[in-house]
Amino acid sequence: MQPLQGKVAIVTGSGRGIGAEIALTLAKAGAKVVINYVENKAAADKISAAIIEAGGECLAVQADVSDPAAVRRLFAEATGYFQHIDILVNNAGILVFKEIAEISDDEFDRIVDINFKSVFYTLREAAQKLADHGRVVTVSSTVTRLMLPKYGAYAATKAAVEQLTRIFARETGKRGITANIVSPGPVDTELFRAGKTAADIERMAAMAALGRLGATDDIAQVVLFLVSDEARWITGQNIGVNGGII
């Protein structure tokens, strides 16, 4: 029997990158997966097709998770289609790779809306809609533990969602729900490469003790563990999945 057989998972920002890999990995483990995307329907359709080809079941829902009304609709569509929700993976996020002095008001508002507010909205909804003994994983970043130039706003939003997730774990633990954080190091995705030179990328890959960039599957496998029954006694924790950067 597959470890997530009968479970339903929402993965935000799962049209591509780490989110898409997480969605496919959970589906292969038996979960029915709600793929969330904002604009790139083609990417969502591609990961949906991959899940179906692997024998899984999925539902793609367009919803901007920085909008509380859209988050309510996302959860409503998920429960309407699959009847219940057992797993929430907060993956949606953007990176503004600029020094603090260079970030505009609009850019700051956007990164706060997408990286921070979206997690608040999904956790608030999950507190009411997630099944007992459910699982929450929030994708943060190892940059919260470093002092890397051009990551100021991004690191601040990720640090904020780490604390939200820890407190959510305390508030919902009496229902058997666990909530944990996964903090990747540099992962070879379109989001990571945006705005960086080849020298930037080479330097950051060399920071890892294992001497390479992470792969999306490196992250997805840890998420799979945390949402499985084997991790039932782990909650409120931050797991660094970073190849030994720190």
What would your notes on this structure say?
The protein contains 8 helices and 7 strands. By secondary structure, it is α/β, with parallel strands linked by helices. It has one domain (8-187, 216-238): Rossmann fold (3-Layer(aba) Sandwich). Strands 3-2-1-4-5-6-7 form a 7-stranded parallel sheet, with helices on both faces. α1 (17-28) links the parallel β1 (8-11) and β2 (32-37). α4 (105-129) runs parallel beside α5 (152-172). The longest helix has 25 residues, at 105-129. The protein is globular, with a radius of gyration of 17 Å. 46% of the residues are buried. The mean pLDDT is 96.
CATH level 1 class label:
Alpha Beta
Largest sheet: spatial strand order: 3-2-1-4-5-6-7
Strand content: 15-25%
* Assigned CATH architecture: 3-Layer(aba) Sandwich
Average residue-wise pLDDT: 96
CATH superfamily: NAD(P)-binding Rossmann-like Domain
Structural class: alpha/beta
> CATH fold name, please?
Rossmann fold
What is the radius of gyration computed over CA atoms, rounded to a whole number of angstroms? 17 Å
Main sheet characteristics: 7 strands, parallel
Q: Helix share of residues?
A: 40-55%
- The end-to-end distance, rounded to whole angstroms, is 37 Å
Number of helices: 8
Order of helices and strands: EHEHEHEHEHEHHHE
**How many domains make up the coordinates?**
1
Point out poorly predicted stretches. none
Total number of strands: 7
Q: What is the molecular shape?
A: globular
